[in-house]
Design goal:
The complex is a heterodimer. Chain A is α+β, with helices and mostly antiparallel strands. Chain A has helices spanning about 5-75, 80-95, 145-155, 200-205, 240-245, 250-260, 295-345, 365-410, 455-475, 480-495, 565-570, 580-590, 595-610, and strands at about 100-105, 120-125, 130-135, 160, 165, 170-180, 185-195, 215-220, 225, 265-270, 275-285, 290-295, 420-425, 435-440, 445-455, 500-510, 515-520, 525-530, 530, 550-555, 560-565, 620-630. The chains are: A alpha+beta, B alpha/beta. Chains A and B meet through loops of A and helix 2 of B.
Chain lengths: ~625, ~100
C-alpha cells in the first residue's frame, strides 16, 4: 500500500477538503462584510475630513468677512475724510494676515469731480510694506468688475470668482465685497478685502486621507480654485472633466458633477478612467464647493490586506490541521497495517505473529482481541488437524500394508496346463475386503474355494483371513468337500460373538475322471457350462457350529467350464440401482465358451464395468473360472 | 430405508421399506433394536416393500433371530419379494428364519 493512497491520507484529505470549503465560505463572508464595513467607515471618515476641511477654510473666510464688516461703520462715520478712508484700508490690510489688499470703492461721481474714487491699500510684494493708492481711473473702470457690480446690484456681500491679480503680483486672488448704504438706504460704496488663496493650498495639502486622494475646492460656478497635488489647475472647469473622459458618455460621472454642482452634501461612487472611485462633497457657506475624490482601490486596500491576512492565517491553519490530522489518523490506523501484516503472516501459517499493543478500550481493541482468539483457535485447529492427519496417514499406510498382505494371501500363479486352465480375479471395494478364493492340486485332485464374508472392510478382511487358513487346514486333512466345509464352520463358529458369517463354495475336481464333488455353504450357485448348478444351499458358515453340511457331485467332461463368483458381480449396480444380474452373467459365460480361463474372467469383469459405467463399486468382486482341458 | 413398528397386544408388527445395504444397515440395526428386548414377544416383519438386502442386512436378521429365540419369542418374515427370498434361500438363512 503506497502512502499516497493510504487510508490516513485519504481521510486527512477528506477532512481538509471539507474544512477548506467551510474556510473559503467563512473568508468570503468575512471579506464581504469587511468590505462593506470598511467602505462605510471610509465614507464616514472622508465626510468628516471634508467637514473639517470646509470648516478650516470657512474659518479664514469668516475672519475676513468679520474684519470687513467691522470696518464698514468706520467708513460710514468718516466717508468725507479722504485721509481717514486710506487709513481704514491700511488698517484692514495690516491687521489681518490673510488680507493682502483692501479698497473702498465709491459709487460713480459720489465725490464731486471724481468719477472714480477708491482708496486702496495693498502689500507691496517686493518690500512687504503696506502701500496705498487711488485705484479707479479710466483704464481701471471698476464699476463693471464683478467684485463691485454684483454686491452693488444685489445689495448683499459677495465673494468673487477667483482671479489672477495681474496688477498686484500674480497672486490667485479672491475678493470679498461688502456694500455700504447711507441712511436713506442708497448704496454709496463697496468695501472690499482681497485674499490670496495661498492659505487654501496649505489647508488642502494637509488633507491626505489616501495615497491617490484629490481634495479640491471649486467656486459656485464649478471653477477649480485649488486642488491638492495640482491635478486640477486653477481655472479649469469641473465640466471639462466630462469632456476629457472616454469618448463614450459617462452618465455616472455626469450624475456626480450635477450632484456636486447642485450644492448638496453627500458621497457617491463613480468610474473614471477605468477605476472605481468615490467622492465626498459639500458646499461652503460662501457657495464654494469642496470635494475629496479617492480611488476605491486605496479604500479597499485595507480590506484586501485584512482578507490576505485572514487567508494566510486560514491557509496555515489548514496546513497544520492537515498535518496534525494526518499524524493523528496515521497513529490511530497504524494498528490496521500491523493487523494486515499479522493476517498475511497467519495466511502463511505463522500463527504467532505479534499483534499491536492497544491501550484503548475501543473497536480496535476488540479487533485485536478477536485476532488473538482467531490465532489461538487456528493454532488449536491446525494442531488437531495435524494429529488427525497423522493418525489418518498412519491408518492409511497400515491399510495399504494390510491390503498388500491380504493380496499376498491369494494365489497369484494360475495353472494353465494340459489338464486344466484356472484363473481368478479379486477386486475389493475398499483397501481390504471380505472376498476370498484359493486353490491347490494334490494327488491329481484340484481343491478350490470361493467365499464372501458378510460386510466389508477390516472386520470382513480378518474373517476372510481366518476362513482362508481354515480352508487350507481342513483341506489338508479331509477327503470330501462336506467335511472340509463342516470343519471350517466349526472353526468360524467358535467365539463368533459378532455374528459374522461366510458364504462359500468349495469343490474337489478329480483331474483324472472329471468328477466334481462340491459343497455349497449359503453361496451363490456356480455356473457350469453356462448353466447355474443346482445346489443345496446348506447354511452360511459361522452361524451354527453343529450344522451338518451336505455335498453334491457332478461328472464333467473335457472342455467343461466352471465359473464361480461372489455377489459383487451379480449385484453390481448402475446409478439407477439396476443390478447386473444372474442372467447377464450367464450370457457372459456363454460368450466366453471358447475363451481361456483368464480371458473369461477379464471378459466378465469388463462387462460388469461397462454395465456400472463408473458407478462406485460398493461390494467386493471376485470371479474364478476353471476349464477342463482333458 | 424406513422401519415402522406397531405393537399390538398379540404381536409386534414391523414394516421395512426400501433397501438394506452398506449405507442403511446401521440405521436398520438401530431401528429394530427394540425388537431384541425381552418383552418383544411375537414379532412379524412385513417384507413386501423390502427391495434389497446385503449380507450385512442378513447378519442383522440373524442377530434378531438369535435374540428372539433367547427371549422365548418368535420371529416371522412375511410377503418377501422374490429376489430377497432368493438371497435368504441361497445363504441358507431360510432354514434358520421362518419366512411365510
Amino acid at each position: 500500500m503506497s502512502p499516497a493512497r493510504s487510508f490516513s491520507t485519504r481521510l486527512s484529505l477528506n477532512i481538509l477538503a471539507l474544512t477548506s470549503v467551510v474556510f473559503i465560505l467563512t473568508i468570503g463572508a468575512a471579506a464581504i462584510s469587511s468590505h462593506i464595513l470598511i467602505s462605510d467607515e471610509a465614507t464616514k471618515s472622508l465626510e468628516n475630513l471634508l467637514d473639517a476641511t470646509i470648516k478650516d477654510v470657512e474659518k479664514t473666510l469668516q475672519t475676513v468677512e468679520f474684519a470687513v464688516e467691522a470696518s464698514s461703520w468706520l467708513v460710514a462715520e468718516n466717508k468725507d475724510k479722504e485721509d481717514y478712508l486710506y487709513h481704514i484700508t491700511r488698517k484692514i490690510v495690516s491687521e489681518n494676515d490673510d488680507i493682502v489688499g483692501s479698497a473702498i470703492a465709491f459709487c460713480p461721481d459720489y465725490r464731486r469731480n471724481r468719477h472714480w474714487f477708491s482708496p486702496y491699500s495693498f502689500i507691496e510684494e517686493q518690500t512687504g510694506e503696506v502701500e496705498s493708492k487711488q485705484l479707479g481711473n479710466e483704464s481701471y473702470d471698476y464699476f463693471g468688475m464683478e467684485w463691485y457690480s454684483v454686491p452693488a446690484e444685489t445689495g448683499k456681500p459677495h465673494w468673487s470668482e477667483p482671479y489672477i491679480d495681474e496688477g498686484g503680483g500674480g497672486y490667485l486672488m479672491c475678493t470679498y465685497s461688502y456694500p455700504i448704504f447711507d441712511d436713506e438706504g442708497a448704496l454709496y460704496a463697496v468695501l472690499t478685502a482681497d485674499i490670496t488663496l495661498k492659505f487654501i493650498e496649505d489647508v488642502l495639502e494637509s488633507v491626505k486621507p489616501y495615497e491617490h486622494s484629490v481634495v479640491s475646492l471649486m467656486s459656485p460656478a464649478g471653477v477649480y480654485l485649488k486642488s491638492s497635488t495640482n491635478v486640477k489647475k486653477f481655472g479649469t472647469s469641473i465640466f471639462a472633466t466630462l469632456d476629457s473622459t472616454s469618448q463614450q458618455k459617462n452618465y455616472n460621472l455626469d450624475n456626480l458633477v450635477n450632484t456636486i454642482m447642485s450644492g448638496q452634501k453627500g458621497h457617491m461612487q463613480y468610474a473614471a478612467e477605468g477605476h472605481l472611485c468615490m467622492a465626498v462633497f459639500g458646499p461652503l457657506n460662501n457657495g464654494w464647493l469642496a470635494t475629496i475624490a479617492t480611488d476605491y482601490k486605496d479604500v479597499l486596500e485595507r480590506s484586501s490586506t485584512m482578507r490576505n491576512i485572514l487567508s494566510l492565517i486560514g491557509f496555515l491553519g489548514l496546513l497544520i490541521l492537515f498535518l496534525t490530522s494526518l499524524l493523528a489518523i496515521r497513529k490511530l490506523t497504524k494498528p490496521l497495517s500491523q493487523f494486515s501484516e499479522a493476517a498475511q503472516g497467519i495466511a502463511k501459517g505463522n500463527f504467532n505473529m505479534a499483534l499491536p499493543d492497544i491501550d484503548t478500550e475501543d473497536e480496535v481493541r476488540q479487533l485485536r482481541d478477536s485476532f488473538e482468539t482467531m490465532q489461538g483457535s487456528l493454532q488449536e485447529y491446525i494442531d488437531d488437524l495435524k494429529t488427525t492427519t497423522a493418525a489418518n496417514e498412519r491408518f492409511e499406510s497400515e491399510l495399504t500394508i494390510a491390503s498388500n498382505i491380504q493380496m499376498a494371501m491369494l494365489p497369484k500363479e494360475f495353472p494353465n496346463n494340459e489338464e486344466f486352465d484356472l484363473y481368478a480375479m479379486l477386486k475389493p471395494a475398499k483397501e481390504v475386503g471380505g472376498d476370498l478364493y484359493d486353490f491347490f492340486v494334490r494327488n491329481d485332485i484340484l481343491y478350490f474355494v470361493i467365499g464372501d464374508v458378510s460386510g466389508k472392510g477390516i472386520p470382513a478382511a480378518m474373517v476372510m483371513a481366518t476362513a482362508k487358513c481354515s480352508f487350507r487346514f481342513s483341506a489338508h486333512y479331509e477327503k470330501d468337500p462336506q467335511d472340509i466345509v463342516t470343519g471350517m464352520n466349526k472353526a468360524l463358529s467358535a467365539n463368533n460373538d459378532s455374528e459374522m458369517f461366510v458364504t462359500l463354495f468349495a469343490g474337489m475336481l478329480d483331474l483324472k475322471t472329471g468328477l466334481l464333488k462340491y459343497c455349497n455353504a449359503g453361496h451363490n450357485p456356480v455356473l457350469v457350462n453356462g448353466e447355474y448348478l443346482k445346489v443345496k444351499p446348506n447354511l452360511a458358515l459361522g452361524l451354527f457350529r453343529e450344522f451338518t453340511y451336505q455335498q453334491q457331485e457332478i461328472q464333467l467332461g473335457p472342455g467343461s467350464s466352471i465359473t464361480l463368483y461372489t455377489d459383487g458381480i451379480t449385484e453390481a449396480e448402475r446409478a439407477d440401482k439396476a443390478q447386473f444380474g444372474e442372467e447377464a452373467l450367464k450370457q457372459c459365460t456363454l460368450q466366453a465358451k471358447d475363451m481361456s480361463a483368464e480371458q473369461t474372467c477379464r471378459h466378465i469383469i469388463s462387462q460388469v464395468q461397462a454395465f456400472t459405467k463408473g458407478n462406485v463399486q460398493n461390494d467386493d468382486i471376485t470371479i474364478m473360472t476353471i476349464k477342463i482341458n482333458r | 430405508m424406513e422401519v415402522s413398528i406397531n405393537k399390538t397386544e398379540v404381536k409386534t408388527l414391523v414394516s421395512v421399506i426400501g433397501r438394506i445395504d452398506t449405507t442403511t444397515a446401521e440405521k436398520f440395526n438401530e431401528a429394530i433394536a427394540p425388537l431384541m428386548a425381552p418383552d418383544a414377544g411375537a414379532v412379524e416383519i412385513d417384507c413386501s416393500q423390502l427391495d434389497y438386502t446385503s449380507s450385512q442386512g442378513l447378519r442383522i436378521f440373524l442377530m434378531l433371530q438369535k435374540a428372539v429365540t433367547a427371549n422365548k419369542g418368535s420371529l416371522v418374515l412375511t410377503n418377501m419379494q422374490a429376489p430377497v427370498k432368493e438371497v435368504f434361500d441361497i445363504t441358507g438363512f431360510s432354514s434358520i428364519i421362518k419366512i411365510i
